[in-house]
Amino acid sequence: MRILGIDPGSRITGYGIIEKQGNRLLHIDNGAISTRSSDDLADRLKVIYQDLHRVIAQYAPDAVAIERIFVAKNAQSALKLGHARGAAMLAGVIADLPVAEYTAVEVKSAVVGYGRAEKSQVQQMVRMLLNLPEIAQEDASDALAVAICHAHSNALSDRLPGLNSS
Amino acid sequence: MRILGIDPGSRITGYGIIEKQGNRLLHIDNGAISTRSSDDLADRLKVIYQDLHRVIAQYAPDAVAIERIFVAKNAQSALKLGHARGAAMLAGVIADLPVAEYTAVEVKSAVVGYGRAEKSQVQQMVRMLLNLPEIAQEDASDALAVAICHAHSNALSDRLPGLNSS
After folding, report:
1. pTM of structure
2. What b/e sequence results for B10-39 when a residue is b if at least 16 CB atoms lie within 10 Å of its CB, and e otherwise?
3. Could you give the ipTM of this predicted complex?
4. Which residue of A has its CA nearest to B49?
5. Which of A123, A152, B9, B165 lies in the 20 to 30 Å Cα band around B31?
6. Residues in A 71-110 with any Cβ partner in B closer than 8 A
7. Which residues does residue B20 pair with via DSSP β-bridges, in sequence order?
């Protein structure tokens, strides 16, 4: 099973592709989509959507995982983040992929085993779990973390037939 | 020139199509896309995007106009609205249409001639300007209002060659 993890942002959207083979997790690719070059919101959303569309076409993932967000600094940043996150989710759902959402606590628990882990601990564990030569770019690393979370969640439902967590 | 106005919302997204022929404004169609049937955010975004995609394919507008939002009740509602608004803008920009944004004050000024007009005044003016038999559904009426605003803004730039407001 191949999973696309996404960490959406109004300036940078990270993505990461992993493959689950039995109990093993393989790193396929990761990257960061920058939308800093345009001040136009519609243009930025188009870049996020089309770049993720290309990633999906290239790597043919079976599922998309994205962090669920509850809080934002303020209404303005929430509004901006919402636009970017909506564009990212659409890229998955328009490609007919299931889109799973996980809270930050779920992601940290799945990757580090501790829901209040530091960001640097999560990055180190992502690097180790996927045998990366170095820590991935920050947003790409967060995207890989949510993909790993989905792989674990999915592994659970594989072991418990009839329970579908997605 | 044919304009698609959109009033995005996480539960209902209104749309309205008008045509500007010289100084005349013609009503083409309006409607409301309900996403209440699904609790799944990704599904709701897909409905907004695909329904607007269908409206664009059916009526072939030359431009999209959407209200610019500055405030929201709180970060949670801003986040939800941002997702829906992002999906609506994407439907336009993926169809290679220019997407213009107008503040509520600009829309009210264009339609009623007074930036602090009541919602009911805007609805009545939309009905009169477009010769509708009755007031359109609330969100569809708001969508027609922003389309009218774009038609007026556009009329101005037509009269002042070299000034492009879109």
Report:
1. 0.88
2. bebbbbbbbbbeeeebebbebbbbebeeee
3. 0.84
4. A90
5. B165
6. 71-87, 89-90, 92-94, 99, 101
7. B25
**Token digits for A44?**
């930025």
Q: Please list the ranges in chain B whose pLDDT falls under 50.
A: 162-166
Q: What is the pLDDT of residues B125-149, one digit of tens each?
A: 999 999 999 999 999 999 999 999 9
- Cα–chain center distance at B12: 13
Interchain contact, A78 vs B73, CB within 8 Å? no
Model pLDDT for residues A57-99, shown as the tens digit of each residue: 999 999 999 998 876 678 888 888 999 999 999 999 999 999 9
Instruction: State the DSSP H helix or E strand holding residue A160, giving kind and residue range, or none if neither.
Output: none
Between CA B105 and CA B111 the distance in angstroms is 10
* Residue A107, amino acid: V
Out of B43, B49, B82, the one facing A79 most closely (by C-beta) is: B82
Token pair of B52 as six digits: 């607007």
Cβ contacts of A97 within 8 Å, gap of 6 or more = A4, A56, A61, A62, A63, A64
If phi > 0 it is left, if psi is from -120 to 50 it is alpha, else beta; for residue A131 that is left
Pairing of strands B63-67, B99-102: parallel
Q: How many CA atoms lie within 13 A of A72 on its CB side?
A: 23
